[in-house]
Automatic annotation (TrEMBL):
This is Signal peptidase I. SUPFAM superfamilies: LexA/Signal peptidase (SSF51306). It is a single-pass type II membrane protein. It is found in: Cell membrane; Membrane. It is an enzyme of class 3 (hydrolase).
Length: 177
């Protein structure tokens, strides 16, 4: 009996250690707060962010990331511009490096604040996104607080790339492009 209890305690201890290691270094779950990423994510959706994707190629245009905010809880937004890119928006069309960005996921209902912008409007000097910074926008542009409000997001602020929605179960998914 003592041996069996010891084995159970050891299994529980190993499980707890694995959970702590996974949450600390590999994956972490977040709850989407608000409608700024609608229709891709709805208020209350639960997602998993991959923390190690940065070490295997980094973040690219179109990736959905979770990042720490300086003004409150973490945000979930889409990467639109990466270091070295030029980005502007004219008449609700985003241009990255002079090419129109195809964005089937974007909600454009009515007029959005700041429909037109350039990087210089967002406080970026030199015309290109600086090293280790990213321009992020919400998919629901008319109501999203994003780089149009708070500027570029530093690489250090990014927690990870959203790779899984696990709640609600009827919206379970893995591809958010």
């Amino acid at each position: 009996m003592k041996k069996e209890v010891g084995e159970w305690l050891m299994a529980i201890l190993v499980s707890v250690i694995l959970i702590v290691l996974i949450r600390s270094f590999l994956f972490v779950s977040y709850s989407v707060d608000g409608l700024s990423m609608d229709p891709t994510f709805e208020d209350g959706d639960r997602v998993v962010a991959n923390k190690i994707v940065e070490y295997f190629g980094g973040y690219e245009t179109g990736d959905v990331v979770v990042f720490n905010s300086e003004v409150g809880p973490a945000y979930v937004k889409r990467v639109i511009g990466t270091p070295g890119d030029t980005v502007k928006m004219e008449d609700k069309q985003v241009y990255v490096n002079g090419e129109p960005l195809e964005e089937d996921y974007v909600v454009n209902t009515g007029d959005s604040y700041m429909d037109n912008f350039t990087l210089s409007d967002l406080g970026v000097e030199g015309g290109e996104i600086p090293q280790d910074q990213f321009l992020v926008l919400g998919d629901n542009r008319p109501i999203s607080r994003d780089s149009r409000d708070f500027g570029m997001v530093d690489r250090e602020q990014i927690i990870g790339e959203v790779q899984l929605r696990f709640w609600p179960l009827n919206r379970f998914g893995t591809n958010f492009d």
